[in-house]
């Protein structure tokens, strides 16, 4: 089961990622734009997720994903770390969130991450 340190390592391994404490919790940013947080007691993480996909994830796996009340209007979803199967799943979720926040030039510079090239 991944923990907060696994989240930190996986997030910081992504290009141009920094960690910054905001709202009394660790947040992870790419080129200054937040893509993940470790809220509350660090047993979960919040990541970017388009609202349509987020709602589908929550319905499909409510034991793993949920929406915090104060984030309902935003494209974020919470992930229970204890519900993740392994480190690769954690990395995939963080990488997907990173891609949503990263600028196009950074996405284009890292094709090894399986990122779509800009049109």
UniProtKB/TrEMBL annotation:
Q: Does the keyword Glycoprotein apply?
A: no
Name under which the protein is recorded: MmcQ/YjbR family DNA-binding protein
Pfam families this protein is in? YjbR
Which molecular function GO terms apply here?
DNA binding
What's the source species for this entry? Streptomyces bottropensis
Q: Which residues lie in coiled coils? A: none
Q: Which UniProt keywords apply?
A: DNA-binding
Ranked from the top, the taxonomy reads: Bacteria, Bacillati, Actinomycetota, Actinomycetes, Kitasatosporales
* Superkingdom of the organism of origin: Bacteria
């Amino acid at each position: 089961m991944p923990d907060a340190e696994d989240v930190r390592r996986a997030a910081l391994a992504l290009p141009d990622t920094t960690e910054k404490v905001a709202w009394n919790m660790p947040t992870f940013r790419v080129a200054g734009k937040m893509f993940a947080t470790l809220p509350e007691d660090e047993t979960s993480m919040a990541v970017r997720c388009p609202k349509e996909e987020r709602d589908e994830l929550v319905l499909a796996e409510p034991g793993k994903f949920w929406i915090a009340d104060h984030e309902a209007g935003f494209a974020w979803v919470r992930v229970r770390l204890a519900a993740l199967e392994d480190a690769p799943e954690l990395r995939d979720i963080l990488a997907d969130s990173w891609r949503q926040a990263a600028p196009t030039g950074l996405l284009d510079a890292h094709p090894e991450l399986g990122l779509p090239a800009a049109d």
